[in-house]
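INTERNAL AUDIT FORM
Audit reference: QA-55
Scope: verify that the stored structure record matches its stored sequence.
Auditor: D.O.
Record contents follow.
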Amino acid sequence: MQPRLLPSVLFLALLLGCGGGAERRPNILFVIWDDVSYPHASAYGSKMVSTPAFDRVAREGVLFHNAFAPAPGCSPTRAAFLTGRHIWMIEQAGTHASSFPQTYLSYQDLLEEAGYAVGFTGKPWGPGKWDVSGRTRNPAGPEYNDVKLDPPYDGISDKDYAGNFQAFLDSKPADQPFSFWVGGHEAHRRFEPGIWEKAGKKLADAEVPPFLPDTPEIRADVLDYAVEIEWFDAHLGRIMETLERAGELDNTLLIVTADNGMAFPRAKANLYEFGTHMPLAIRLPGRGKPGRKVNDLVQFVDITATIYDAAGVAHPGGASQLAGRSIRNILESDREGTVDASRNRAFSGRERHSSSRWNNYTYPQRSIRTPQHLYIRNFKPERWPAGAPQKYESDGKTPGPMHGGYHDIDGSPSLTFLIAGRDDPAGGKYFHLAVDKRPEEELFDIVADPGCLNNLAADPNHEETRAALWGELAAYLKETGDPRATGNGDIWEEYIRYSSMRKFPKPAGD
């Protein structure tokens, strides 16, 4: 068990916040969509969504074009961000629906001990069980979810995020700095079918990713997703207005992002671009030139380090307990494009997502992203990436359960459409892209192939790149203590899953 807070850290925090003429410690406001991929915000040029609040943060702060989640799933991503450590550095918390060992301290806990008021509304860390590790509350802080509203569509949460943020502000001393987490349930499945029409959108507006067929059914599903993005953005706008009324907007480090990619086949729960490449805008008032667009590769663990840096709070375990580096130099710069050339790598990983295989088996992956390439290592290529296929009905043609056994893909009209068209000569390829087994190594030229459709790992013309990236990834995993690199990878199969479990037949050979 690590010490909770060193006296010198507490002294530093108090020194920054107290004393004659001392600079006020900034508030920290972290706002996170659920299941939203880059580039689905209008600040990035997307035409199917309108996100004026996110765009305002980008206009008054910094818009990041290369921000990467630590995992393509909600629970491990949130745990990695809260601790500032990669998913393979936090044991059970690095997988889906497990526990969150108390050993790994949350930045919310440490900021609270340094004098910050902390809390969350909406979706915090989860799913999983934080109490089995001895915690007395969610790692994101105390809950503020009592204020409700009447949502306009099915699938939209009844939590009034902005109203709950106001309740949090009203509950704390006016002069106390705060660190608050706003976790949207949007755009998590399920979506009410057809809300795109109610919202006045047209099928022609939809931006269909290259790994999905461009059909009316897919377009409609993508547009329903866009409506949910806009709903949560409206709450962000109200929250910023609340901060302005309280006179706190210009003393708040405001971070807006998403936890993982869109809940569509080959996006969420995959290490491809649409699974881990995230929208990100950060507003740090009075520092740096606003309205800049930055191309540096930024990881969520870097954002955690930035929060500590901005708040003047050090982790009691020292820098070795954090996997990232503060991006304060980027936020305080006047440059755009590439600001810090050393930020040219991002690392992500995946173990378990849903209950999708016999014996609760995971689908272990790790990746390294550079400005041009994405390299993925699939440690168990004999397993099915989206879940083990299940038997069809007695006619041998009709899938049994709605998912057809592919439970690492959220149930959706898009998945149903792919399953129904699995044997279609033209459309069947998209089904197979989503569910078929994958080779041990995958390599993509992201500049030429952002949809990650053309695997270059076996191409002799790219052998040098493949070998170099695997060597770099393997060394980094070993350096950071990944069990997959140190010979204890099966530990991931032993972590308890606390969400629902499904039964699957034992695979041949196991």
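Auditor finding: record pair retrieved intact. Residues 1-21 have pLDDT under 50 and may be disordered.
Action required: none
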